[in-house]
Structures are given as C-alpha cells and as structure tokens.
Amino acid sequence: MGVRFLHAADLHLGSPLESVTDKQRTDELHRATHDALKRIISLAIDREVEFVVVSGDLYDKRARSVEANDFLVQQFERLNERDVPCYIVHGNHDPLYDGAERLDWPENVHVFSADGVEIIEHPGEEHTTARLLGQSYGQQWVSETLSDEYTPPDSTVPNIGLLHTGLNPDGRKYAPCSPSDLAAKEIDYWALGHIHTPGRIAGANAAYAGIPQGRHIGEAGVGGCYIVEVEPNASPELAFLPTSPVVWHEIEIDIGTAKTGDGKQVGTLSELVSCVVDRCQEVRNTGYTELAERVLDVPVSDVEWEPTGVIFRLNLVGRGAVHDQLDEEAIPWLQTQIGERLPSGTSTVWIESIRDRTSPPLPDDETLREEDETIDELHALVEELRTQQEVQQDLRETVGEVWEWTPAEETEDLPEDRLVLNEDRLDDLIDSALRRATDRIALEHYNVD
C-alpha cells in the first residue's frame, strides 16, 4: 500500500532577496520567502496529502528570529488543524544545537534528533502507512556519512529518508555520500535538502525539492516543492508544484544577430530596447509552468499559478555596431527605458541589471583564424586548455589568490574575500580571456579603433 506526501526543503526564512534597491520592490521581495511557504502549506491541504516533510534549512543562517519562528508555527498550525503531521530535519543553516526555538511547535510537528537516525512510524487510520527516517544537523558542518545509519527494520511499508546533504562523497561538510550509497539502502524515497535546484538523482530513488523561492540570479527559475507517491519496493512518482512568488530569469542578447520585431538588424539603442522588451515578453507569454517543464525531469502539476514578480538580468554579448553606443550613460538609460516599456499585467516585471559583454564588429572567428596565424594558435591553445586535465590543473593554480576551487555544495560557506572557482566559472574565465585576446589582436589586424 502506498502513501502520498509533500516534500519541501531549504525554506531559508528571513533571507532577503538580493540585488534590488527599490524600496517598494524590496518590501515585496522581503515577503517572498514567507509567501512561498504559505503556498506550500495551502498545496498540502488542497492536495490532501498524508503528511509533509521538510529536509533542512528552515531558517536562513543559525539565528532564529521570533518573527520567523512565529510564522512557521502559524503555518504548521494550519496543518495541525487538519491532522496533517509535519516531519523536519535541520540542516547546515539551522543546526539543531545552535539555537533553540523561541516558541513551541504544534503537536503535529516532529523534529528529528541530531544524536542519531530516528525511525518514526507514521500512523494511518488503522495501521502504519509509512516509516520515516531522519537525522538533523547538530552543528553547521557534518563530516560523517549520515546515510550509512538509515536502516529500516523491514520493507512492509514505504521507507522515506529525510537527509540534508551535498551528495558529494569527497565532501567534508555536508553529510558526504554518493547516489550509490543512497541506492544501497532499503529506502523507497530519499527526500533531500541542501542543493537549491530541484531534480531527481540518477541511480537512486532520491530528489532535491530545491528552494521554494530563489533569492538572487544564481537561483533563477521557478521554485517549488514535490508531491510524492510511493509504494514499498517501487519507484516513486513525483510531481512538481510551483511556489515562488518571484521568479528570476536571465536573458542573453547577441547584438550581432539580434533583430527588431519587424526583422531589422539592431543598430541603435532604441532598437535594442525594442528587442529586449520583445524577448522579456516572449518569456512571460510562454507561461511559467512550461518554463519549469523545460528544465525539470519530473512533470509539473497543472495548477493555476503565476508569480507576482519577475526579475530579469540582461546579458549583452556578441559583436555589432551598437557596441560603440554602450557607454556608461547608455546602460542606466537602457534599464530605465526597458523597465518603462515592460507591461506589468498581473505581475510586476523589472530589470535587475544589464551586463555589457559586447565587442566591436569584426569578422567571425572562423575567418579570423584563417586570416591571422596568432589568433589561430590562440584558439588551439584554448582547445587544449578545455581538454587536458593536467593543463587545467596548472591553470587553477595560477588564476590568482582570490579564486578558490570549490565544489557546488560548498559555495555558500566560502569566505567573503574569496571567489568561487568551479568548472563553469573556469570555462567563463577562459571564454572571457579568449574573447579579449582575440579582440585585441583582431583590432590591430584590421586597424579598427
């Protein structure tokens, strides 16, 4: 017999959304993490789930404010009024021993201990319908492989494991383990927390619910939670439910190929404004459920949902005539003009920032390589950098003292005076260096000012 429940994680209550300075919008964004949790609770009630699990980081940082604690109590009380239990593990941002709750939890809330894996039998009307296993973080960092101790007594009912982990067997801070470690245990579904991007884990009956409300452009896309249906010794069925009141979205415009609505090549700032507005509107018209489906590996539940706010970051790239018009005054002008022309509709829309990575118009890279031996050798060197592991290791060691090679799950604890260096960032640095060097050589070759 199966069970149906809601899986959420990484609420990060009390965390402000970043990169926005407008007072009215800041106030709206401050409420976003709270509004996302309200929606989670409403979905649990509307979908009539048997229980709710939250896989760590209910709060942002270890400080538990009275406001955040009171809000959580209010929301869990809504579940309590309908006899819906809530099972919780604490993570690295809200370790159990680093701060006591200011208010008592409702009687439907069970918080798993940090002293060892607890096993809870979830009662149905007549008999146990599920078994939950969990262990909270006692301190910010946990170097032990907690999953080793998740051992259910039998498989007569669905066994569900709540675990806050970076899922990195070589990690030292976030309950290190691998997908194969999880698959080796008799757990029918691992409800994971810590990684803020939702998705299933290949090779294990496990999934990250992701963050319900992104806080910056690094957490772009639609946030939400899962409805999970699972039976003993069977693959779980998941459906993603969107919850984020505010959605961050990144748009890239190549000025070398961008066109206006009537098919004209962009050549002026005014035409660039029109092109950007069209692209932003295209994203909105696509529908956010469809956008979520494009990046998720589970179906998105058909719900009537639209965010109250959409924040765009615009990246201008490529070579084109409009490059010379993008001076220091043009960027804020663009941001204002685009913001004024974006229709709000049922949601507030604005531009968080504009990043100018454009270059003067030049022949394409293939032509440049054919006509300039130095550029051809430069591109060959970069191709070697991308394919030779030893060369990449040498590069990592020489990129500068402020960079630190950091696995994805450990970036949040990096010191403020250090910058993250990982595979994606290294590729970005190589691309940027290649583009700058190619432009310098080509400008001299073609005598372009």
From TrEMBL:
UniProt keyword annotations, A-Z: Exonuclease, Hydrolase, Nuclease
Which Pfam families does this chain map to?
Metallophos (PF00149)
- Tell me the ranges covered by the Calcineurin-like phosphoesterase domain, including all copies: 4-198
Show the SUPFAM superfamilies listed in the entry: Metallo-dependent phosphatases
Question: Which InterPro entries does the record cross-reference, listed alphabetically?
Answer: Calcineurin-like_PHP, DNA_Repair-Maintenance_Comp, Metallo-depent_PP-like, Mre11_N
Q: Which stretches are annotated as coiled coil?
A: none
Q: Write down the superkingdom of origin.
A: Archaea
The keyword Nuclease belongs to this UniProt entry's keyword annotation: yes
UniProt GO MF annotations: exonuclease activity
Report if keyword Transcription regulation is assigned: no
Write down the PANTHER family for this protein, in alphabetical order. Answer: COMPONENT OF ATP-DEPENDENT DSDNA EXONUCLEASE, PHOSPHOESTERASE
- By what name is this protein known? DNA repair exonuclease SbcCD nuclease subunit
Q: What organism is this sequence from? A: Halorubrum vacuolatum
Q: What is the lineage of its organism?
A: Archaea, Methanobacteriati, Methanobacteriota, Stenosarchaea group, Halobacteria
